[in-house]
Amino acid sequence: MAHPKITVVGAGNVGATCALWAAARNLGDVVLVDVVPGLAEGKALDLAQAAPIAGFSHKITGSADYAATAGSDLAIVTAGLARKPGMSRDDLLARNAEIVAGAVRQLVKASPQVILIIVSNPVDAMTALAHKVSGLPPRRIVGMAGVLDSARMRSFVAMEAGVSPKDVQAYVLGGHGDSMVPLVRHSSIGGVPLTERLPKATLERIVERTRNGGAEIVALLKTGSAFYAPAAAAVEMAQAILRDEGRVLPCAAYCDAEYGVGGYFVGVPVRLGAGGVLGVLEFDLDAEERAAFDRSVQHVKGLVKKLDALNV
Ligand code: NAD
Fold first, then answer.
1. Which of 17, 59, 174, 194 is 20 to 30 A away from residue 260, measured at CA?
2. Phi, psi (deg, nearest 5) at residue 144
3. How many alpha carbons fall within 13 Å on the CB side of residue 195?
4. What is the CA radius of gyration of the chain?
5. Helix, strand, or coil here: 62?
6. Is the pLDDT of residue 83 over 90?
């Protein structure tokens, strides 16, 4: 049987790290694409030379030409500008919209059956844009944010509680920004609700640190944004799809009647498997959670409106 073919657009920090994680998990043949001549080829060659040591079984190639991506089963789109200190994800909207729209048009032309995982920021709006320009059914387009934000929350809980992050479950819903909604009530350590395990003040500290998780790293790095955990999150989603795992993961997915969103891509728990999004899971939200989720959805809607005005 042919191996799955995975394209990663953007061979920068997130893209190259996605290629590394995908190769390390032997998910399939990986093609890296970047607009900078030589960058994707160079990083792919470097990764391919790690194969004998690290045990990668599949091909890793790079190109500046989308012809190399033809027949991709799945593409992870990381092309675009990253935040610098003082910038919000929303500040990237206009520039990244052009880049993402161009990349998606070329990807779909070369691979009409592709499933898209969008990473470029602001991710909820970029996922809506990918839907608009690709003409693909919404279940084949999904944005990466919730897996990362939830992993950040899980890691902070683990640090505070002195337990393994593997034994912490956490869900962050809503848009990927300051209005994201860490769901403390639906999060747990070893199956026991967080609210029974940690004092209120600690939980508030964890929620705040989760919301600022990206900015904390931008402030430390100064020249760009996080990439190890974002890439691990995107590849976790790719694996769930390519191996038809039916994983329940929070992703930016199309919601119409679901959560009463009314036709936007926002962070909700979905089942990911062969073909993309297999369904949206509706959590019961109490009044406070519902209000926070609605505020976050309003923010995403505002961004999509700005995007529509750009007419890319
Ligand atoms: P980076 O600057 O290291 O890499 C971006 C790459 O995109 C560069 O190599 C650049 O040459 C390439 N590129 C630009 N225009 C292109 C085009 N038209 N076609 C192909 N490639 C093109 O940035 P990064 O740290 O890898 O971040 C990439 C994007 O991912 C940013 O928008 C960042 O904000 C976003 N991001 C999102 C999340 C999330 O949770 N959704 C997390 C981290 C980063």
1. 194
2. -95, 115
3. 5
4. 19
5. strand
6. no
Are 301 and 260 in contact, with CB atoms under 8 Å apart?
A: no
CA separation for the pair 29, 60 (Å, rounded): 6
**In terms of C-beta distances under 8 Å and separation of at least 24 residues, what long-range contacts does 99-104 make, across chains too?**
100/126, 100/129, 100/130, 101/129, 101/133, 101/312, 103/9, 103/10, 103/33, 103/77, 103/79, 104/77, 104/129, 104/130, 104/133, 104/134
According to the model, what pLDDT value does residue 132 have? Answer: 97
Instruction: Inform me whether the pLDDT recorded for 276 exceeds 90.
Output: yes
Tell me which residue of 110, 82, 83, 100 sits closest to 35, measured CA to CA.
100
Going along the chain from its start, the domains and CATH numbers come out as 5-143 (3.40.50.720), 146-310 (3.90.110.10)
Residue from 83, 107, 121 to probe ligand 1 pocket by mutation (most atoms less than 8 Å from CB): 121
Pocket, ligand 1, Cβ cutoff 6 A: 9-15, 33-36, 39, 78-83, 92, 96, 99, 102-103, 119-121, 123, 144-145, 148, 176, 224-227, 230
The tokens for 50 are 């790690």
pLDDT digits (tens, 9 = 90+) for 216-229: 999 999 999 999 99
